[in-house]
Structure formats: structure tokens, C-alpha cells
Amino acid sequence: MSGESLLKARGIEKHFGPVQALTSVDLDLPAGQITALCGDNGAGKSVLTKCVAGIYQIDHGQFFWEGQPVQIHGPRDASRLGIETVYQDLALADNLDIVQNMFLGRENVRNGFLNEDDMERAASKTLANLRVTTVRSIRQPVASLSGGQRQSVAVAKAVMWNSKLVMLDEPTAALGVVQTDMVLDLVRRLRDRGLAVMVISHNLNDVFQVADRIAVLYLGRMVAQDRASAFDRQSVVEYMTTGTSSRGQRVDGEAGTHGAG
What we know:
Layout: E1 5-16, E2 19-30, E3 34-38, H1 45-52, E4 60-65, E5 68-70, H2 75-81, E6 83-86, H3 98-102, E7 109-110, E8 113-114, H4 116-129, H5 147-159, E9 165-169, H6 177-192, E10 196-200, H7 204-210, E11 213-218, E12 221-227, H8 233-242
Parallel strand pairs: 3-10, 3-11, 6-9, 9-10
Antiparallel strand pairs: 1-2, 1-4, 4-5, 7-8, 11-12
Helix pairs in contact: 5-6
């Protein structure tokens, strides 16, 4: 277990008009570990993710990156730090091939022309490093890929840019068993490369298969955060549905900090 968290969120608050979406949320995302962010619909998972990604501005609180206080005013600030997000819709362009998608908006240009060779080499190397071996060709149109392959391309695109934290929103939603296993393997490889990984998931099978740590939001508050081994399915479900658990009131027992409960 690494000591210092790569990203620390402390006292994060966010409201939309009269609706308080996040209240005094603390979150730790250590490098080399997979943190599963769990919670029912409306718990604040997407809002918290979008605050870290710079899409929403926080109203109150502080982010710390590698121990230093940082401001995340927009997606560029997040990217500059090394934060990449893979959203549920994947934001891939069906009419483009894998290489074009991986470089979309960050094309490699030399003397006014696209440097196709360099882009192909970089895309191939990233996919090979992540052991994404099921695609026929990196020039395959994304429209022709399976759900698992599309997810793999979206993840590879995220880690290509020297990212240190990758956040994945429901990465196995709508995937079959084989494709789910493929994506979970990919998530483990990100961790093994030393990245901090946050996975938003409703699927507790997936959570207990890959997570090193689990954080649970309930109605915009962080009600539990600890090593995955401190939880069982029943306690996670209780935290998600009631905000407490009969099996212990642990909120980040590891770090000794207590979120709002």
C-alpha cells in the first residue's frame, strides 16, 4: 500500500441551484491502486467524477495532487496534471479508425501534414503495452469493434497521454461475461503500471474482483472509505441504500480521516 495519495479531495461541496449534490466529501486515490466508487443513482458519483475532471467547478473544498494544493478549473487543468476520464458513452467517433480516435483533438502534425506513421507507431505501442490484442488492425473503424474492444480503445486513448489517474465510468456496463473479463484485466494492468484508477460501478461482482479500496457515496456524502477487505457485499449494499452499515461504521479507517456520515 502506498502511503501518500496521488489525489486527495477534502471537504468537496457542489450544488446546482437549491440542490446540494455533494456535501463535505473526502476522497483518497492512491497510485498503484484501484478505488471503486459505489453509490445508488443520485448519490453523487458522476458529479464528484466531473469535479475531479474539471467539468464542474467545486463550490467549496480543496484538491491535493501529489501532496500539493491544486485548482482544477477545467478539463485542461485536469489533463495537465495527468487526469483522464473514460465516460460511459466513451466519446469515440464511429466513422474514424482506432488511430484517428486515439489522437482525436491531439493530432501529430509535421510540416502541416498529419504524421500518420508516428501516430500509428504510438497507438500500436500503447495497445501492445496494455496487451490489447483482439483488434484486427489499428486502422479498423471503431464502428466495427465489439463493446469490449471499444472500451479498450477508450482506455488506451486515456493512458496514452502520460496520465497518472484514470477514472472509468461504468466500464463494464452492457458487456457480456468474456468482454467484462477483458476490460477488468485491462483495469488491473493500469494499476500494475502504477496508475491510480477510479472505477465507478454498480456491479459489485466487478468491484470485489478488482478493487483495492472501496468508497461509498450516499446522498452526496462519503459514508465509507477503506480497503476492499474491510467490506463484504452486504455492508456495501447497506452503505449504498441507507448510508450506514450494521457491520461497522468505518469511514476511511486506513487514513484515520472521517467523512461526513
